[in-house]
Amino acid sequence: MKKFFSFFLLTFVVAANAQFGKSVFSKDPIINLENFDKQRVHWGYFLGFSTYDFKTEYKVPGQDIDIKGNTGFNVGLVGNLRLHEYLDLRFEPGLYYGSRTLTYSGFNNQRDALREVKATYLHFPLLLKFSSLRTGNVRPYIVGGLSTTMNLSSNSKSKDDNYEQKFRVKQWTQNYELGFGVDLYFEYFKFSPSIRGVFGLNDELIRDNDPNSPWTGNIKSMKTRAILINFTFH
After folding, report:
1. Which of 84, 86, 164, 190 could form a cystine bridge with 234, CB 3.0-4.6 A?
2. Are 100 and 228 spatial neighbours (Cβ–Cβ below 8 Å)?
């Protein structure tokens, strides 16, 4: 999380200095795209990266699973509907690649102790964007809303389970999202780096056929947690 946050701040500083230099903080900067935000509808696209994790609750504490999120790649589109001077409705469908590495204790061999949970997500967030007053060519904002995610790699239809090396999760999940970002107004386009947290609302795990399975038997619930960093171009 600290690495993601530090990278986000570094990206903002570099982008601001590269485009504006000292004029960002000057008294009378040259205003770029002065009427851009007055459009009723505008479009864009984003590129970025993410890390996915699981928030896991256990029936019996002390038998925790070591879960490591691996960095993935994001790409998608943005549709923005202006509702008010400071409020926009956004739809940001995207394709997200991610994976987690689960390490279980109590096994004598690595084949049983490790599970690589790969995911290819179709992500459909509907968000409200609350923007501050624009200052020169900079406009911070916060964003929040709900999303639905389809996991194309869920193994949900497989009859095999962890006894056959198949870790299964549900194909569809629901989430809420919160984040913040900043709009930087360039001469010909608007650049918006943002960071957002995704918090799963429902239990995603499909249990093994054996209720006493060492992989799923002690899990009360398993929900997605993710950090998304997107670089949006309008």
Report:
1. 190
2. no
